[in-house]
Amino acid sequence: MTEQNNELIIRDLHVKVENREILKGLNLRVEPGRVHAIMGPNGSGKSTLAYTLMGHPNYEVTQGEVLVNSRNVLELPPNERAKVGLFLAFQYPHSIPGVTMANFLRTAVNSINEKPMPPREFRQKLREKMAVLKMNDEFAGRYVNEGFSGGEKKRAEILQMAMLEPKYAVLDETDSGLDIDALRIVADGVNALLGPQLGVLVITHYQRLLNYIKPDFVHVLVNGRIVREGGSELALELEKSGYDEYLTDESAA
Amino acid sequence: MALDQQARLNELGDYKFGFNMPENYAFKSKRGLDRDTVEEISYMKGEPQWMRDFRLRALRTFEKKPMPQWGGNLNEIDFQNIFYYIKPMENQGRTWEDVPADIKTTFDRLGIPEAERKFLAGVGAQYESEVVYHSLREDLEKQGVIFKDMDSGLRENPELVQEYFGTVIPPADNKLAALNSAVWSGGSFVYVPAGVHVEVPLQAYFRINAENAGQFERTLIIAEPGSYVHYVEGCTAPTYSSDSLHSAVVEIIVKEGARVRYTTIQNWSKNVYNLVTKRTSVYRDGTMEWVDGNLGSKLTMKYPSCYLLEPGAKGEILSVAFAGDGQHQDAGGKIVHAAPNTTGTISSKSISKGSGRTSYRGLVKIYPGMNGCKSHVNCDALLLDDASRSDTYPYMEIEEQDVAVTHEATVSKIGEEQLFYLMSRGIGEIEARAMIVRGFIEPIATELPMEYAIELNRLIELEMEGSVG
User: Fold this and answer.
1) How far is B293 from chain A (nearest CA, A)?
2) Which of A187, A226, B7, B330 makes the best surface tag, with the fewest CB within 10 Å?
3) Which pTM value belongs to this model?
């Protein structure tokens, strides 16, 4: 594979959910090492973008392509997309009763890697990553998302991201339901993972999260399309003025 | 990785233990059941008169009783097309070396010698209707613990057997218990003297080999006051085209302050009717624990029971069932509170796949005047797809006010969202489904001896094959 186009490229993406078109020609490029924020009002298609990228079966792509380092991933099942390097931090992670975090993470890590990670190395890595997210060892023995608080769920998502080391991570409303302390821990966890190898797409309604995870670019998503793009200052502007002007524009269009 | 897993599962095939060895028997009775068959069985075994009479009385009861019309469909069983007694060789093997090669091969493939090396106290391995191999560690013998096949028990410990045999489950209890009482062969006889704790589980493997061979083993466990024993039963059977019948009776007596745990993992091939009556009488401050795992068979009807007969008695039943395509698992348990201040728990977990059907069927009965009793029933069902089915029949007969009875039931389906979540982490669909199922039964798997927990997980992985799409 050529390394020439080392990017996540979304081209003219149209997506239907239950026969309604939600994304109507979305274009976006994410380079490794960059943090992109997607902001938009409720119902603009933010979560649809996140689920579509990861391959949720209910999201039907009618047009366009998604390339990860030149490879079109739209035909791949979610597990193959994970192997290509995509990761989604869920807004509402699901519980898997009876399956411990450690067992789940080991299975996931060994599914994604070519070779199984030696158990000792796995345990060591898990302990390190949990420490960054201020989780105690006992957490590894709990069942996946079962009885987790909102903050624990989001930390568990970032822990998975830390263990799986994706190339491109989509954080879907990771700030929702977090108090300020939990938000800080989660943001610190994400920041610890940032680097030249990782491209991040932060999906959020509010600017608050972007105080802690600094975006290089901000894209405004309204009614299934990117309507404006800019630097991090755009987030602050949106915080003041809201999305109203875009909504009117869109309905007039 | 996902593809490797698929390939591996394909290689293992639908039913791993579906092999069979050429038949080589010393004696095989004719097909069908009548007075002659029963007398012949008793004669061949050289039994005392009382057992012969017991069998013949049971046969008359069997003939009179109607087939149960609840549970699963039993109408296809043709009792006249079954062999009721098969003896694989002349004498019971005293050591492993005495066991014939083909039988040994079968056992080897089931992993018995390996299991024995690990931590077995004794192995009672039932091949067809007679126990062919039996060993018991010397220290157990010194403690006075008896662990032998039921026929040997009858010959060598006649007083004990005559005192307890058929007292917990009389032949008239139900049609299939009557059948077993008439034609029983093999099974285990366990006696634990007062105060003796058997530290390692006693294990027996059961296996049907001949086509249309009914297997009617009979197990009797007597735990004297203050004793403890864990008995483990694992079953596999090869696949045959016509239906086989397995109808066992297990009777357990738990005396004052004693504790017995009885663990079963059964994996009969998918043409076997598995109709088993299991019951315990529990006396003052005694504890009975049934751990019952049902994977294979065409139809299983099995409801391990605890009759709590004196104050302080406790009964606990853990039941896990997996029904794949064409299978019906009708399983559960019964707790009968026949004394005040007794405690019962039933936990059931069932999984249905494809056209598979599971039913939880359970009874909690509290007699009038039995105050201070506590009973809890919890049954969870997991459906793997749209076609699978699960039903719950929780019978409660509570005839006393001063008691605490609780019941919880859940039915869930492997959700698209759960699958998507696991798959988004790189886990293939088959493994993701297996993971959800393993998690579901985890609370019961943790109650099993380690190697059985592993075997259960492996069997479920095999069962999960083809559950995609």
Assistant:
1) 17
2) B7
3) 0.79
